[in-house]
Design goal:
The structure is a homodimer.
Chain A: E1 2-7, H1 22-28, E2 41-45, E3 51-54, H2 60-66, E4 81-85, H3 91-94, E5 106-111, H4 112-117, E6 131-136, E7 141-143, E8 149-154, E9 181-187, E10 190-195, H5 203-209, E11 212-218, H6 226-229, H7 251-254, E12 260-266, H8 280-287, E13 290-292, E14 298-300, H9 301-305
Parallel strand pairs in A: 3-4, 4-5, 5-6, 10-11, 11-12, 12-13
Antiparallel strand pairs in A: 1-2, 1-14, 2-3, 7-8, 8-9, 9-10
């Protein structure tokens, strides 16, 4: 199996269009202490020729151009992208569909509630004769026809920001349902996970991840309240439907005892100090066995085993 | 006045995600015979600090990062982009609004019919407390408050692709109304034009453009039928709501006798041979007094006059 990180940043990317926090300032200056990142997405393939894109981000056009695996291979029209899975209905997971327009067949997989966000309005640009919409049920194993299956499972999360009630008290946080899912990629007995949004760790999730070969996991913030402390937003990671790396309830601690081959953070927010190569936070998570994902990171499991 | 071409390609950009026509192949290979281009947009400013973006393309995040003028200037949140004008409701003119999310005030100007395409669904992500929606009437001069006015005027065009009837006979081509507009930027008596979509030349348009200092004009194709001949699409430029550069009814010929300071093609389709520096078509349009716009092209009219 081959995995390719197309983007490793949380929504808005790094730098964000209207942010001059420490990390964004370094990114705009092209300072060597960190690298710019597009919004979170991973591409997966069994044969290196046909790819499934997990999350269609607003940066998808740039991500395709940056990665030769996804370039068209024959004239006049072609794409190695055979399918897209949208794990939730946020802009950073579906706006990329607006890039995939006109005269190209592919399959779009999403739960019914996420699929509904990709219908009507501007999404009418997806050619209904060519784009197969395949609603999926939670915990249903989908055969991609490309040598592996993908199964969506509920993770604690929330509905997309643009669907939120303006009454804060009405917003349900940490709910498990169709709105936010993780994806299990399976090749025989081998299991790989892409979980860009997870508001808290659960025993069920820990159990599921036991024995995983690779985990791409929600690395939104280092501390739950770092956006508030940096003056960037009044929201905690929890309020945004995401987890912190650090702390008693953070991902590093809560997954420490789970047997996972490679653990890689993706969906990393611009506020996260672990983005800086020279930070104490980076050293801390790496010492705990995690990698900080970056755009263009490739993992070929055949090579990894040989 | 300062003008900055953020993007110079037609919808889909150069290269397109699923195209391996001659120009796209060269662009994917980073061949020196042409340069890659993002989707068509021009930024305009009187003071160099506050900018209005004409067309919010899906590439807007990348366009901001590529142009220091549009970087945030102070922490924590800031943007030099004070307003956006959407000249039509196509994906390449409005999808960039999905990039401009959360905690940043700006004004969005569009005709009522185009504004309607930016409401509801995913566009709910625009913060209603911060984004001022300003519907504009045709031929109404809008004071941007930044030292210049902008007036939208109807150009021959059509409704957005994603709103088209599946019954080809029902699609009205070359209609003049609110669906497709040109923008007149005015600083006192000085006039500048941004017209990324124009299906045919009219006497009224020729008359309007007389005496313009700069014209950024629809350069979609070189020949009306080139996409058909290249096997890329069954559509002519006319069918897409755009003009060819060449021919009796083309822009070069029909604007030849109009007094215009600088004439610059933008919204150039991947199929257009004039994109190649070494092409006969490039030599022909340049000999006729046109420039082929490219991303990052800057024009400061103060410098131009000094």
């Amino acid at each position: 199996m081959q995995f390719l990180i197309l983007g490793s940043a949380a929504g808005g990317g790094l730098p964000q269009w209207n942010c001059l926090c420490e990390n964004c300032r370094l990114a705009y200056r092209r300072d060597g202490r960190l690298t710019a990142r597009t919004q979170c997405s991973v591409a997966v393939s069994a044969d290196g020729e046909n790819w499934v894109v997990l999350s269609a981000t607003p940066d998808l056009r740039q991500q395709i151009i940056s990665n030769p695996e996804l370039h068209p291979k024959c004239a006049p029209r072609h794409s190695p992208i055979k399918a897209v899975f949208a794990p939730n209905g946020d802009i950073d997971n579906i706006a990329g569909l607006l890039v995939m327009r006109e005269m190209q067949p592919f399959a779009l997989f999403a739960t019914r509630s996420v699929m509904a966000h990709t219908e009507g309005g501007v999404f009418g640009v997806l050619n209904a004769d060519l784009v197969q919409r395949r609603p999926i049920a939670l915990d249903e194993s989908v055969d991609t026809g490309l040598g592996f299956t993908i199964t969506a499972f509920a993770t604690p999360g929330k509905i997309p920001l643009y669907m939120e009630s303006r009454n804060e008290a009405e917003i349900e946080l940490g709910a498990e349902g169709e709105s936010t899912v993780g994806l299990e990629i399976r090749d025989g007995d081998r299991r790989f996970y892409y979980i860009p949004s997870c508001a808290r760790m659960t025993d069920a999730l820990r159990k599921r991840l036991e024995g995983a070969e690779i985990l791409f996991f929600d690395g939104t913030t280092f501390e739950d309240d770092e956006m508030i402390r940096q003056g960037l937003s009044p929201k905690t990671a929890w309020r945004m439907g995401h987890m912190a790396m650090n702390g008693e309830r953070g991902s590093v601690r809560t997954l420490a005892d789970v047997d996972i081959g490679q653990r890689i953070f993706v969906h990393i927010n611009n506020s996260n100090p672990a983005l800086r190569h020279d930070s104490a936070e980076r050293r801390q998570v790496e010492a705990a066995g995690w990698r900080i994902g970056h755009d263009g990171l490739r993992i070929d499991t055949a090579e990894a085993r040989s």
